[in-house]
Design goal:
Radius of gyration: 24 Å
Number of strands: 0
Number of domains: 2
Number of helices: 4
Distance between the termini: 64 Å
Oligomer: single chain
Structural class: mainly alpha
Length: 84
């Protein structure tokens, strides 16, 4: 394709605005991830287990029905392995 045709078909200003918004959001996402890491470190410092806290956060995010279904399957598998 002719680069002149591409230049006329793409609005550089509009594209730049999208890219800059994405970059800003990515920067905010990194800052939030750092904040979350700090909270886990604080929880660990007060005696809580961050690994377990992460699991609880994950479980709370799930739909109750889906979580119960997964727990039933887990119990079935553990039972089959003699680990109940």
């Amino acid at each position: 394709m002719d680069t002149n045709a591409v230049d006329s078909a793409v609005d550089g200003g509009h594209l730049r605005a999208f890219i800059e918004r994405i970059e800003k959001l990515e920067e905010e996402k990194r800052a939030i991830a750092d904040d979350i890491k700090d909270v886990y470190a604080e929880a660990k410092g007060t005696g809580f287990d961050p690994k377990i806290i992460r699991k609880i956060v994950s479980l709370r995010r799930q739909d109750k029905h889906k979580r119960e279904e997964e727990e039933e399957i887990m119990e079935l598998y553990l039972s089959a392995l003699g680990m109940e």
